[in-house]
């Protein structure tokens, strides 16, 4: 096997690298907008509390040493700037600048993820980090692409796809009896504008969708390693499959990132037919660069032992990293499908005494279901982290989600940063005196109900989720003080 690819594979690298840079740009814009309200000094899970009990050796992150809000802001905007340079192709002029840009980008995002706690505990964070690490070694735009480079990306793509297929077959029986899509569109973490329509599509489309899922995740991934044009066909099927998921729900950047990774299997000559670009004059990579790529490839082979064991194990786990650098992990999604759908609805009141006639007003989140007449929005590939955690919160008691207690306190304080994570504030003039949360069961309305009422959802009250509390409540203040979360409302700009 040649260590170099054919001349046309520079287009494969271009598509892969620019797509990956776009995902990183989205991820860092996400950090600009959300990291401080979620994890800053006054956030829901302050990093400053985490670093008291950890070290750089346990959680490699620049924020172990610098965990001020200013440091988070500088790092996030630096990530935006570097991602933009890579997306524009400016940093790829030389191998040294290309490696430096991707290396810094990977280190910055690793720093966010390793202190991000539950708000950064999603499988696609590790997929993005692993892909970003491999991108460091792709070389400048004027060098040939080395075979090992693209095979590392294909191996990552294989683990994402095949791992997801295996976890489904070993998990919920609805994947085996072809009924999972009877529930998924309604109960997935964050439906989008088309989810209602796919939910009510003919039954045969649901069964066919599950079959296409099994074909795309259990059979197609082996094609990534076949000679062309088989690998290209496998890559194109993967892109089609991931796009079909993208248009039916909001799964952050998981689907978009997987589509980007699929370009590693596509022959550059196919891309050239769609995008006729004059090729640059390509040179053989420097000897040191070839040696480094071979060494990284050997490292990936070694680190792959644990993921392979996991895939062949009947007790396969879904998303796991085996090292603090988030390299060569185990991936998979939707091994089980929830049914029915529960939602935590947060409410507040300005009344100082709670009576049966107390008026409670709902807080509306940006994307998670709340008001029954609101069409679910399209937000992917952007990631609304608080909305996702609210979906997880509905599965269990608030006591298992410490950030939720702090969320309620922030609403009582009228914390502007946290309120920026919500769609609207029902108390624009003064903060509520009490807040509470209740659990509801949600279902899509039927086409007949939709035509009659104009509602997309119907819901039924289930039970209390969080008791009505006030900052005047001594026991509630005690919980906040013990956790180090009690803050001063005046510091938010409102007395």
Mean pLDDT: 93
Number of strands: 6
Q: How does the overall form come out from the CA principal axes?
A: globular
Class from secondary-structure proportions: alpha+beta
Outline the low-pLDDT stretches.
488-495
What's the end-to-end separation, in Å? 70 Å
Strand percentage, roughly? 5-15%
The Cα radius of gyration reads 24 Å
If helices are DSSP runs of H or I spanning 4 or more residues, what is the number of helices?
A: 19
Strand order of the largest sheet: 2-1-5-6
Helix fraction? 40-55%
- Major sheet characteristics: 4 strands, antiparallel
Q: H/E series, N to C?
A: HHHHHHHHHHHHHHEEEHHHEEHEH
Number of domain modules: 2
What is the element layout, followed by pairings?
Elements: H1 10-39, H2 47-50, H3 69-88, H4 95-115, H5 123-135, H6 147-170, H7 181-187, H8 195-199, H9 203-219, H10 230-246, H11 254-262, H12 268-274, H13 287-303, H14 305-312, E1 341-349, E2 361-362, E3 364-365, H15 385-393, H16 402-413, H17 416-419, E4 422-424, E5 434-444, H18 447-453, E6 457-469, H19 474-482
Antiparallel strand pairs: 1-2, 1-5, 3-4, 5-6
Helix pairs in contact: 1-3, 1-4, 1-5, 1-11, 1-12, 3-4, 4-5, 5-6, 6-9, 9-10, 10-11
Structure description:
The structure is a single chain. By secondary structure, the protein is α+β, with helices and mostly antiparallel strands. 48% of the residues lie in helices and 8% in strands. The chain has a four-stranded antiparallel β-sheet with strand order 2-1-5-6. A two-stranded antiparallel ribbon has the order 3-4. Helix 1 (10-39) packs across helix 5 (123-135). The longest helix is centred in the N-terminal third of the chain and has 30 residues, at 10-39.
